[in-house]
Amino acid sequence: MADVLSQNEVESLLSALDPSASSGGGSSRPATRNTDFNSQISIYDFKRPERVSKEQMRAFRALHESFSREFGAALSGMLRSIIEVKLISVDQLTYSEFVFSLENPTCFNLLESETLDGHIILDISPSIIFPIIDRLLGGDGHSHGAYPNRALTEIEIRLVSRITGLAIEGIESAWSNLCDWKLRVSQVESNPQLVQIVPPNEVIVLISFEVTMGETRGIINLCIPFNTIEPLSNKLTSDTWSAYKKKSPDLRQQLNLEASVSKSKIAMRVELDNSKLTAG
Questions:
Q1: Is residue 102 included in any domain, yes or no?
Q2: Residues 257-265: what's their mean pLDDT?
Q3: Residue 94 within a domain
Q4: Among its keywords, does the record have Cytoplasm (predicted)?
Q5: Beta bridge partners of 121
Q6: What is the pLDDT of residue 142?
Q7: N- to C-terminal Cα separation, the chain
Q8: Is residue 68 part of a domain?
Q9: Is the pTM of the predicted complex or chain greater than 0.90?
Q10: pLDDT at 22 over 60
Q11: How far apart are CA 159 and CA 171, in angstroms?
């Protein structure tokens, strides 16, 4: 039993572990260090790193608010109907979260450019793309509460290319202060889960728009992987997007509006003022 500690040795060890203990009576003050540390701890999710700053997110929002107005005007001119495109959210999330949030099938367009190291995605939900196709083919554009649950045909993809072309022009115009994008559609898919442009945990910026055509509504998503535009991240400042907001109106948008108005049919009625005449 020579290895058993005496009571005095046990108390000495406990005192050494607690430096706040007093040497006289053995009493100690309550420790508050853990409470102070806990109040300063913030939760950080390593699976979803915040790679995009708040200022950059504000720049994304400002750039694409202008895009939504121009794209809505261009769509209205093409479809000869009142189309409203409204920016509803700008978020950063992982690529896998974005893909699994989409409908399947959908209209999943991969955009590429020689000046981009990667792809960006323009996704158009079936709830709005089929009414737009119906409108392009001479219909009223109303889905009547239902739309086909299938992939687009080759003919429909050709028709949709007119819509994606307008969107590409708007995106290039919105980013013209930062870079000269010459975007083109490299691939159109119906199943978004078959396309992996970046690793699943890669951070992307998701810009979502709500498109309204009469009583029909749908979502258009613009997915921009952060590593694709990371070389431009230092340009995404308040100075950049405030300068963009002061740009003169787009000539293409002005011409589209003039062409749309010139073809509009307006019912007019002329009333002549009443007058009294006396007979000879």
A1: yes
A2: 66
A3: yes
A4: no
A5: 110, 223
A6: 73
A7: 148
A8: yes
A9: no
A10: no
A11: 19
